[in-house]
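User: I'm new to structure prediction. If I give you an amino acid sequence, what do you actually give back? Let's try with this one:
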Amino acid sequence: MSGRVRAQGRARAWADLFRVSALLSVPGDALAGAATAGARPGRGTLHAIGASLCLYEAGMALNDWADREEDARERPHRPLPSGRVTPAAALAVSAALTLAGLGLASRAGRPALATATALATTVWAYDLGLKHTPAGPATMAAARALDLLLGAVASTTATPSTRTATASTTGTPSTRTVTATPAGPGPRPARALPAAALLGAHTYAVTATSRHETQGGSTRTPLAALAVTLAVAAGTSRAGASPFGTLLALTYARTPATLLLHAALNPSAALTERAVAGGIRATIPLQAALAARGGAPGTALALLGLIPAARAFARKVSPT
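Assistant: Good question. You get back a string of structure tokens that encode the predicted 3D arrangement of the chain. For your 320 residues, that looks like this:
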């Protein structure tokens, strides 16, 4: 019985380290990227989702490793300062997950690997140096935007089709292979850039607010984040958007707006932390709205189905 209890304790410690309740906000990046690039989800999209999950959790473990001394003062209950996970184990897992993420991305092609490499570099740079600098929120925003672009690139990378042509120069038929490039606009990663910018703006606002979640004391930052949230919702529900997409954009805005307003009116640590958690949860309806914007209502509905599970996980493991 004691062995089982210890195993459950270790599992809970790693769940806390990885902040598994926030993990469901990750697959929507790749799916929204595919939709806004004009591509249908396929094998490349699945590889992108796997890579994103690995790199996200690598960042979570590395974040706690880098902040272990700060957490010992402000959050002694976290897995590393409490001794439930060793720093060496957290760092080793972070490195292993980074390599796994890059390996999965490579299976979607060289462009996807290049995008995932840029994403991994951004994550490590944020955790190891930029997090506590003025560039911190922008770096995190870039990471989320790159994650969406990873889905776009992986989903639109296709092996060129080939056809066989027969030619005769000296009376003897010869066969050669000709590469055929599909005509027309078709799916293109560049089409996902506006969606990546909107997701990045949302992430910037959440990250900036999170800097005050342990001590509170900021009124200006939650108000600025609220303004960004409303601007992102307006940008997502642009002119010509479907009623469904507009509804999703409003759903996205409603999730963090009230919490941010509360945090601005009463800038306590507790209300600020709730606003940050709400911003993380709002990522999913934003991804759904972006997918609808890209003409993929089915993907949007599938993403909405993740919200109840994310809320259930959040009640057990804090996403912040």
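You can read the tokens as a compact description of the fold. Here is one thing that stands out. The radius of gyration is 22 Å.
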